[in-house]
Design a protein that fits this description.
The chain contains two helices and 14 strands, in the order H-E-E-E-H-E-E-E-E-E-E-E-E-E-E-E. By secondary structure, the protein is of the alpha+beta class. The chain has one domain. Strands 2, 3, 4, 6, 7, 8, 12 and 14 form an eight-stranded antiparallel β-sheet that branches. Strands 1, 5, 9, 10, 11 and 13 form a six-stranded mixed β-sheet that branches. Strand 2 and strand 3 form a beta hairpin.
Length: about 280
């Protein structure tokens, strides 16, 4: 019995150390960190909300991605109909393609309409390889479904509507844990971006481009990352993200909720008020 108690205590300490290491490593490389390392965790930046989520049922046919990205180490890419694709975007089959703004379906949260994007990551299942960082996340509206030659957008052919790094807090990173989900195709993170961010740019800009990059500080170690969106053509309406956890006290990151033994340094920014998703 003593041996069992010691083993359990050792496992808890090791897990806590991993979570603390995740937070501290993120701090070393970014101005602010959104930690989605525990089930149900969430945070916000510039009006967008980021939720750890495991929507079900699973499978590519249900998930319906519009862009896939894959490379060991660091990787980046965006959706388009143009070929060849750039960076580490994958173009097999129909899984990387244009996304029309008119096809997006909004969800209403506390009286505000949001567009919903879901990320499915594919990492190694063991604790040492399960973490992945998203170090860039940007959304654009373009005037064509086949834009290419990305350079923080596509010049006069696009307008930026959201940038994780574009606010006063500067460089942001989102840390995720593959071990929290139920497998490939089930989704790991939901992002709600205000619908109002996409309005006021005229009728010419009717295609949504999502650019994202991964691998710093926690690298890509296995399969592809893929994004889907809630659209009028979705065969299955994905369920909402889990309810928000209790807000963390000032100076703590969400990644250590429930792990009181992990002492962390002060947070880099004041958390915005998190609303409950529908």
């Amino acid at each position: 019995m003593t041996h069992l108690r010691s083993s359990a205590k050792g496992w808890t300490s090791a897990f806590c150390a991993v979570v603390c290491l995740a937070a501290s490593a993120g701090h070393a490389r970014a101005d602010f960190v959104i930690n989605l390392l525990t089930a149900g965790s969430s945070d916000s930046s510039q009006g967008a909300y980021f939720y750890q989520a495991d929507p079900r049922p699973t499978g590519t046919g249900v998930f319906d991605p519009f862009v896939r990205i894959q490379q060991t180490g660091t990787e980046r890419g965006y959706n388009t109909d143009a070929r060849p694709v750039e960076f580490e975007t994958k173009d097999q089959n129909q899984w990387t393609h244009s996304l029309q703004l008119s096809n997006l379906t909004s969800v209403n949260v506390s009286g505000i309409d949001y567009y919903k994007f879901t990320l499915d990551i594919n990492e190694i299942g063991n604790p040492s390889g399960s973490l992945l960082s998203m170090d860039d996340f940007r959304l654009y509206l373009g005037n064509s479904p086949s834009l290419s030659g990305w350079n923080d957008g596509f010049g006069a052919n696009s307008v930026k509507v959201y940038d994780l790094d574009g606010g006063p807090h500067k460089d942001g990173t989102v840390n995720m844990n593959y071990r929290l989900n139920s497998g490939s195709g089930s989704g790991d993170m939901t992002v709600l971006v205000p619908k109002s961010d996409f309005t006021g740019f005229g009728g010419a800009f009717q295609y949504v481009y999502l650019y994202s990059s991964f691998g710093n500080p926690y690298s890509s170690d296995a399969g592809f990352e893929e994004w889907s969106a809630l659209t009028s053509q979705s065969s299955v309406v994905q369920p909402p993200p889990p309810s928000n956890p209790v807000p963390a006290p000032a100076g703590l990151l969400l990644g250590v909720i429930g792990f009181g033994g992990c002492a962390l340094g002060r947070a880099f920014r004041r958390k915005e008020n998190v609303v409950s998703p529908v």
